Amino acid sequence: MTQQQAVFNQGLISFLQSSPSPAHAVATMVRQLEEAGYQALNEGDDWQLQPGQGYWLVRGSSSLIAFRLGEQSLAESGVRMLGAHTDSPCLKVKPQAEVLRHGCLQLGVEVYGGALLHPWFDRDLSLAGQVHFRNDSGKLQAALINVEKPLAVIPSLAIHLNRDANKNSEVNAQLHLPPVVGLKSSDNPSLVFRKLLASWLGREGYRVDEVIDYDLCFYDTQPPALVGLNDEFISSARLDNLLSCYTGLQAMLAVDTPQQATSLLVCNDHEEVGSASAIGAEGPFLESVLRRLAGEEQKYQRMLARSLMISCDNAHALHPNYADKHDENHGPKINAGPVIKVNANQRYATTSETSALFSSFCDLAKVPYQHFVVRSDMGCGSTIGPIAATKLGVRVVDVGAPQWAMHSIRETAGSKDAWYLGQALQAFISRWDGE
């Protein structure tokens, strides 16, 4: 690992640690954008945009679009777009969460997305997300909260009580997943959790009269780390897909000289549950921003015809213990470069044209690249790429850094691959001529 890669990875690790929920990830990205001189926009305002200036806007606290306006007309140059998603599979706290069972206070949870459930057991869990509350003046407010302290655990059943645990152990999300947060106390169980939320907010300086609602998820408190005899791996929660959010952001910020073409980063929430929401990729967020930038319909269509989106979402690396789960010619390896993802049934939006374009960006950046095609007898996941291609009619290539244990509470990627991907994205933004 080079010094440049080491510095990049330390930034990635810091980003992962400070982003335990999608809203925290967006807040962290906004801070970096503001430090780089990007200005905030509000969708309800009239925009007066200046070429060369960077801007950002947030919808629903957990989806973000950032762009730097180019010197050239959008209709002539198109937009260099990067796409990613801010959400990861997790356990979300139910609205009426408190459960008292056999002297143990637990919180009811819903499984968000296609999570691997067994790795959630026996972890030191904490809570993060957004809380809506009424302050002491009666006004509704919202605040981000990250408890940080280990707060809960989902204990496994001892093998003595389940002798077949290593053969066939089904997880019932309703019965087996509620985390234990404490033992019975004198407080009314139905009030305990909201009282705790008010107390935690109070420590942050908020004057809370009543907690009204929240969007909170449990997360593993174990911090990200470099792993391996030679630090070959990054191990962390939420690599899918905060690695892509961070890499896309750093690529855009690294190209800080005036550009002829406009560059744009979109990071949507709700990808893990289908993207069908006001802030998901299937919603109108990106399209509405692009239409405002173009101005009129003919310019909008000309702009899209000259645009390209690189949809970044991590790929399945070849697992040494389960190599038969990959097509023998399409098993991406860790630290061998970003992966171009292809699917004949349009689960990925890559075409031969957009694949060739991305491979040319890798060549310009002097980084390796690979291909992934799922086994022909297995189903294939998807990304925001096909959604963007369908809604906008824009060219899209689906790529991503290879990783192991996708959708686990803790995932593993190569310590070189995010940097490789970032170099290719920089080449796309700064050196693509639009042809």
Automatic annotation (TrEMBL):
GO molecular function list: aminopeptidase activity
Required cofactor(s): Zn(2+)
Enzyme class: hydrolase
Database matches in InterPro entries: Peptidase_M18, Peptidase_M18_dom2
Entry keyword Nuclease: no
Pfam families registered for this protein in UniProt: Peptidase_M18
Alphabetized UniProt keyword annotations: Aminopeptidase, Hydrolase, Metal-binding, Metalloprotease, Protease, Zinc
Enzyme Commission designation: 3.4.11.-
Magnesium among keywords: no
PANTHER family: ASPARTYL AMINOPEPTIDASE
Family to which this protein belongs: Belongs to the peptidase M18 family.
Protein name per Swiss-Prot or TrEMBL: M18 family aminopeptidase
Species in which this protein is naturally found: Marinospirillum insulare
Lineage: Bacteria, Pseudomonadati, Pseudomonadota, Gammaproteobacteria, Oceanospirillales
